[in-house]
Amino acid sequence: MACRICGQVGLNSILSLGKTPLANALLREDQLGDGESTWPLDLAWCPDCSLAQITETVPPEILFREYAYFSSFSDTMVAHAKTIADRLRETRKLGPNSLAVEIASNDGYLLQWYHKAGVPVLGIEPAQNIARVAEAERGVRTISEFFGREIADQLAKSGQRADVIHANNVLAHVADLNGVVAGFAAMLKPDGVVVVEAPYLKDLLDHVEFDTIYHEHLCYFSLTALTRLFQQHGLTIVDVERLKIHGGSLRIFAAHTNSADVQPSVLRLLNEESAWVRDAKSYETFGKRVEALRSDLISLLDSLKAEGKRIAVYGASAKGSTLLNYFGIGQKQLDFVVDRSTVKQGLYTPGTRLKICDPSRLVTDQPDYCLLLTWNFAEEILKQQTQYRQQGGKFIIPIPEVRVA
Asked: All domains of the chain, ordered by start, with CATH?
């Protein structure tokens, strides 16, 4: 395949996770007797622009038209969104004549904060079920479409150019990266800013975050790769921040080239990346550490089951689907799954077919251990589950190394 940023053919393999079901393809009870579609899940990297990417592209209409992930079910995500929205509204002096846009705006978890402050908003969200919630429950004007150059041109011609464009955890989901970033450039006001958050490739490698690899996540970014991508469309990354959220993310600020000064943070991080981003050993080491983690977790679960312990799971997440299916962990070791999302409760996990229940079941059923697959929200979840822990329940946190809390 050709690289999704630079078009180079001949990518270097990093890790093959076999053929797995789609991570968010949750099952109804009446579907348990049916077969499940599986797709290859192989990670590779481009030695030219450094983009890490999976080699299979599942049609976005299959993945995103109806979607099970609602951002507002995470208190952490809502608070995180409010902080950046308030910050930009104040520093850029946004008001009733401004426009704040979010690409893949989900249920309005971020744009609601601009809307409440009187700043006009526009969400662009392809999942029709989620777009309806954004409008009905949070008053966030939402277009239910996939964003790209064509829709950006239409909006710009109609006078809807943005002072700020947010794209949180969306670029990783995009097959046509160049079309989306060209859309940013077309819709952004001359003095506007694009704010992108994406899981950081360095953190993925360092912390063995292989479970963030699934079919929705096509790409895994370094600042080096993002710089190349944005430059191709007349945009310059003028500032960058490293965030702890989602196991380690980048937040970049991009503007039309020559419209703003590049901050030292950008040059500093690009220099740091030069030591590893095109070094094949960085990726080979990652693959070996994934296999060691697999051995450690399976060994722990098998030993606990041999002692007669009962083990549940917290988090019917996409990353959890990757971990369970690749590691071959399922009904033999695990009893049930709990998840805070009412949209997921009553359904079954893809591949492993474990029933998803309300988190209150941890207290009423009191399994001995709970495998925390949404480890990126560990602090929030451990606080929520104080009663389960006080009653003797323990959490197994699998990433970056297996530990019990």
From this structure: 12-55 (no CATH), 63-260 (3.40.50.150), 281-404 (3.40.50.720)
